[in-house]
Amino acid sequence: MADHMKKSDKAWDATRLPDLTGRTAVVTGANSGIGLTASDALARAGAHVVLAVRDLERGRAAAAKVHGSTEVRRLDLADLSSVREFADGWQGRPLDLLINNAGVMMLPRQRTADGFEMQFGTNHLGHFALTNLLLPYVTDRVVTVSSGAHRWFGARIRFEDLDFTSGYDPQRAYAQSKLANLLFTLELQRRLTEAGSPVRAVAAHPGYAATNLQSHAGNPVMRGLMKFGNRFLAQDDRAGALPTLYAATQELPGASYVGPDGFAEMRGAPTLVGRTAAASDAAVARRLWTVSEELTGASWPSERVERPDPAAAER
């Protein structure tokens, strides 16, 4: 492992971000929690941060807390028409960092605007479509936020019933969506490499971070357990954002996965972490990509994916 990754080194934190002046980042779900904290850190380092949020009013209130250059744009990942509208409005500007951070967790059975199970539709399919639509403009990397939940229950992609139409289980559905995030990153990097693109696809997970994400669990017992865990076990959202920031800015191989270095990857400084065999299955990753294209209508860009010329487009 490289020297800068050793635990004996000074713990990496947001004060060690590089100068990001002149760079542009899109952060989904940036109105609260890890998304807001990451947005603030990136902006403090000089980046222009686009807060991609469902609620513009809440997004503007969040942007007022960010120290640096921001703009707020509407994006509802649970509605593919909103995803396309966001991408259509990008108008060819170079995009250095796309951070697929937004997510929902262990919800009661719900459907997206397009009829997909809400967790798979939001956490995976919405980001899948957004990434493919914006990819021609991305110049550096795509960071997708997964979770240690990809290990739960021996998680797998239920191709026979992606939407859990039979026997819905919010925990298993969440685990599937987070496994999908890692498989998406794996196949995206394979395609980028094959295309000769310098863009990298990487993933991160926050460990156990106390955010409002856990408050939406449908099971009241689970909500109670999470409330206890948030208070006594979890790290705060600033620490939870560090793996995302590390993945977004440090020199890492494509398809890397970053998480906390502490016990069970629940808390600690960011480092490279492992994943399950299911999350490393290239054949399943390719199949998931094909199915996701069919479900979303968004596919690998037909034009060559390469670094845009900044001189050819105004920021």
- Give me the number of helical elements: 8
Strand content: 5-15%
Low-confidence blocks of residues = 1-8, 228-232, 307-315
Main structural class: alpha/beta
If you average the pLDDT, what whole number results?
90
Q: What does this protein look like?
A:
Strand 5, helix 5 (170-194) and strand 6 form a beta-alpha-beta unit. This protein is globular. The chain is built from eight helices and eight strands; from the N terminus they run βαβαβαβαβαβααββα. By secondary structure, the chain is an alpha/beta fold. Strands 3-2-1-4-5-6-7-8 form an eight-stranded mixed β-sheet, sandwiched between helices. Residues 1-8, 228-232 and 307-315 have low confidence and may be disordered.
Brief descriptors of the model:
315 residues, alpha/beta, eight-stranded mixed beta sheet, 36% helix, disordered C terminus
Task: Explain the layout of strands and helices.
Layout: E1 24-28, H1 33-44, E2 48-53, H2 56-63, E3 70-74, H3 80-88, E4 95-100, H4 118-134, E5 138-145, H5 170-194, E6 200-204, H6 220-232, H7 237-249, E7 257-260, E8 270-272, H8 282-296
Parallel strand pairs: 1-2, 1-4, 2-3, 4-5, 5-6, 6-7
Antiparallel strand pairs: 7-8
Helix pairs in contact: 1-7, 3-4, 4-5, 4-8, 5-8
Short synopsis of the structure:
The protein is of the alpha/beta class and 315 residues long.
